[in-house]
Amino acid sequence: MTSQLEMQLGKKGITKEFIEDIKIRTQKYRNITIKITVLKSAREKKDDVKRYAEELKQKLGSKFTYKILGFSIFIRKWRKSREN
Description:
By secondary structure, the protein is of the alpha+beta class. It has one domain: Translation Initiation Factor IF3. 31% of the residues lie in helices and 31% in strands. The protein has two helices and four strands, in the order E-H-E-H-E-E. The chain has helices spanning 16-26, 46-60; strands spanning 3-9, 32-38, 64-69, 72-77. Strands 1-2-4-3 form a four-stranded mixed beta sheet, with helices on one face. The longest helix is centred in the middle third of the chain and has 15 residues, at 46-60. The protein is globular, with a radius of gyration of 12 Å.
């Protein structure tokens, strides 16, 4: 069973609290997808979304992967580590 959560990334960007919130929300699930909508206040151009996605993956660890659709980042947590 895969669950899905939704979050928004605003003008403060990726903070320590944002990362901790993701980690806490994903603790009780083995496989979970998180949809993070990047608001206009957090981006100037499309490349900012990719930069946020890379930063999130780096800070969350190897059990997480991401996919970008439009101005949304879909982060997926897996049971085992995923290496690219």
